[in-house]
Amino acid sequence: MTGIDEISYITPHNVNILIWRRAAKFMNMPIEKIFLKNISEIAHCFGADMPINIRD
């Protein structure tokens, strides 16, 4: 089983920053490991969120 410490980065699939902040807190993971930059710049791009985030 993989632990949270082994996760390098999460590329979110939606625009809900509040949920990602809560999830990070629940998982005891630094919020900096979740790529949230594009949410304020691009918002939600349906099925393209993850590929766009990976590109950036």
Description of the molecule:
The protein is mostly helical and 56 residues long. Helices cover 41% and strands 0% of the residues. It is built from 3 helices and no strands. The protein has helices at residues 17-27, 37-41, 49-55. It is globular, with a radius of gyration of 11 Å. The N and C termini lie far apart (29 Å).
What are the salient characteristics of this protein?
56 residues, 3 helices, mainly alpha
Biggest pleated-sheet summary: none
Provide mean pLDDT, rounded. 81
Q: What percentage of amino acids are in beta strands? A: under 5%
Cα radius of gyration in angstroms: 11 Å
User: Which regions are unreliable across 5 or more consecutive residues at pLDDT < 50?
Assistant: none
Q: What is the general shape?
A: globular
Helical fraction: 40-55%
| Count, helices | 3
Tell me how many strands there are: 0
Could you tell me how far the N terminus lies from the C terminus, measured between alpha carbons in angstroms?
29 Å
Give me the secondary-structure category: mainly alpha
Order of helices and strands: HHH
